[in-house]
Amino acid sequence: MKHSRHSFTPSVLALLTAMLGLSACSDTEPVTDAGTDSGVDAGLDAGLDSGVDAGVDAGTDAGVDSGVSEWRVFVTNSVQNADFGGLDGADQLCATQAADAGLEGTFKAWLSTRSLSASDRLVHANGPYVLVDGTLVASDWDDLVDGFIAAPINLDASGVARTGDTWTGTLATGVSYVNDDCAAFTSGSEGFALCGSTATIGAGWTQSAAPGCSTELRLYCIEQ
């Protein structure tokens, strides 16, 4: 795993990871079981405030009448540091990879900044989330954010299996990880952010560790 140059020394980062009960994300060695209980500590619970219910409004429920019967999810076929140019850049990456694979529809990144959570910016589907091969991931939004998914999100937009970890900035409940976010995912050097594992179906699928921003990871993409 690569470490970025920021105000934390490697020893302090190691201590931070240990205190959070997390395992280091890596783009070559996916975490298989870490993170399932990581949300119980103070650091990861920092986002469990009134924002948890913020997504129940009409805006995030916009998908209920869109005509979509299944919402596809995939992991990007590429890895990069945390500088996506912000949420818009991450969403564009998902849209591009979906289009390149011939997937119609709108796709956005499963990604939160400290000021805007995935729960607030993504459609809350009232039907199943599936991999591109039809494998069930979750029966609906509530099932997606209950701490467990039915299958790991480990296929890219073309259905090719991908291992490794993903930038998420998002707790298993869909709310933001508030400790840091690589300057709202515009920095590939300073700071750190939350990542998840493509090998995990517990909470670690989205909240596995907090690596430095120079670490090269994937993204999850979700149909809207």
Could you give a quick summary of the protein structure above?
The protein has about 220 residues and is an alpha/beta fold. The chain is about 15% helix and about 10% strand.
What does this 3D model show about the protein?
By secondary structure, the protein is α/β, with parallel strands linked by helices. The longest helix has 15 residues. Strands 1, 2, 3, 4, 5, 6 and 7 form a 7-stranded mixed β-sheet that branches. 17% of the residues lie in helices and 11% in strands. It has a single domain, classed as Mannose-Binding Protein A, Chain A. It is built from 5 helices and 7 strands.
CATH fold naming: Mannose-Binding Protein A, Chain A
Mind describing the biggest β-sheet? 7 strands, mixed
Integer tally of domains: 1
Low-confidence stretches: 1-22, 27-65
- Give the rounded overall mean pLDDT: 81
CATH superfamily: Mannose-Binding Protein A, subunit A
Distance between the termini: 32 Å
Number of helices: 5
Strand content: 5-15%
Structural class: alpha/beta
Shape type = globular
Rg, alpha carbons = 16 Å
Record field, number of beta strands: 7
Task: Please bin the fraction of helical residues.
Answer: 10-25%
Give the topology string: H per helix, E per strand.
Answer: HEHEHEEHEHEE
**CATH architecture verdict:** Roll
What oligomeric state is this? single chain
CATH class: Alpha Beta
What attributes does this structure have?
224 residues; alpha/beta; Mannose-Binding Protein A, Chain A; 5 helices; 7 strands; 11% strand
Write the layout of secondary structure elements.
Layout: H1 10-20, E1 71-75, H2 86-100, E2 107-109, H3 118-121, E3 129-130, E4 136-138, H4 141-144, E5 165-167, H5 182-185, E6 195-197, E7 218-223
Parallel strand pairs: 1-3, 5-7
Antiparallel strand pairs: 1-7, 2-7, 3-4, 5-6
